[in-house]
């Protein structure tokens, strides 16, 4: 299996939704070394990220990331990714071997700029219905995430520059989905990125 060297530069579009998640529902998904960051009593911040990376990217693929919590380790804060799905085998290999991410293959259906469905074989993972973007502005954002590769605790950053706008969305997670137990509910904020350039850096060993 071949995959590009880091950093990965990915061009395309993405939708990210934010959720308030019950800490007691996701604690078992997170290694004990990390402290779950509370944004409200008993609640942490979760994110569902759907992207379609196309021409000009180091690899072309669609991606679904489930980050059910914000965590901290040694005074550093980042997202914890519990589930991640793509439709490119090289992306699976690179994600697992470089970043220690639990990438798996899945199928993505993008429907006329209003809906995206993700399934794995006969299992439905989720459907996101979303509205069109009406007002947008050029923005640059930086974030970080933690992962585990063997016995190493890793942290890596991602830099995004895109035309960003707020939209409405509705997430459907059937009971058969691998991440149904997280209890994501409905998002309180959804952003849409067009003309996106995403740079995912090489991970650093932090523990």
TrEMBL record:
Show the InterPro entries listed in the entry: Acetoacetate_decarboxylase (IPR010451), ADC_dom_sf (IPR023375), NDX1-like (IPR039343)
Molecular-function annotations in GO: lyase activity
Say which domain of life the source belongs to. Answer: Bacteria
* Gene3D superfamilies referenced in this protein's UniProt entry, alphabetically: Acetoacetate decarboxylase-like (2.40.400.10)
Signal peptide (UniProt feature, chain positions): none
PANTHER family, sorted:
PROTEIN NEOXANTHIN-DEFICIENT 1, PTHR35467
Name of the protein described by the UniProt record: Acetoacetate decarboxylase
Which source organism?
Nostoc piscinale CENA21
